[in-house]
Design a protein that fits this description.
alpha+beta, 4-stranded mixed β-sheet, 6 helices, 4 strands
Length: 142
């Protein structure tokens, strides 16, 4: 994953914030709030599009909710810049969905803000499969 200079600075900010949390300088709640806002400044990769969103009228949804990305960052022992980059590359991905799929289908399945209970921690598209949303892979050169 190629980061812009701004995104690279964001990673440094995340590492600094996590260090402050680990040293007891800030609460977990405050740290997660800051991480969520900070992570949203990094451009996620689009990895799939629903069949319904093929027309180009879709909206982006974080495949793995940002709250879980934050938890993964905070729970990674020995967090380093390379580990953080790997987490961002693997977990900060989006899927293009229709507004209905995003707001109603995922909500109805209880997956609007979480992954399925049996999620393996690897399959970023698991909640869409469980919700029955058909996806097409997106390949972006880069």
């Amino acid at each position: 994953m190629k980061l812009t200079p701004f995104e690279s600075e964001i990673l440094d900010s995340i590492l600094w914030q996590v260090e402050g949390f680990r040293r007891g300088r800030v609460t977990r709640r405050a740290t997660i709030r800051i991480l969520r806002a900070t992570i949203r400044r990094i451009r996620p990769r689009v990895i799939a599009r629903s069949r319904s969103a093929e027309s180009g009228l879709g909206e982006l949804d974080h495949a793995i909710p940002v709250r879980l990305v934050c938890d993964r960052i905070l729970n990674t022992k020995g967090l380093s810049r390379s580990k953080l980059q790997q987490i961002v590359a693997e977990w900060l991905v989006t899927v293009e969905l229709t507004s209905r799929e995003h707001r109603k289908v995922l909500l109805k399945c209880g997956l609007s803000r979480c992954m399925p209970d049996d999620w393996d921690g690897v399959d970023a598209l698991a909640r869409y499969r469980v919700a029955g949303i058909k996806l097409l892979p997106v390949s972006i050169a880069g």
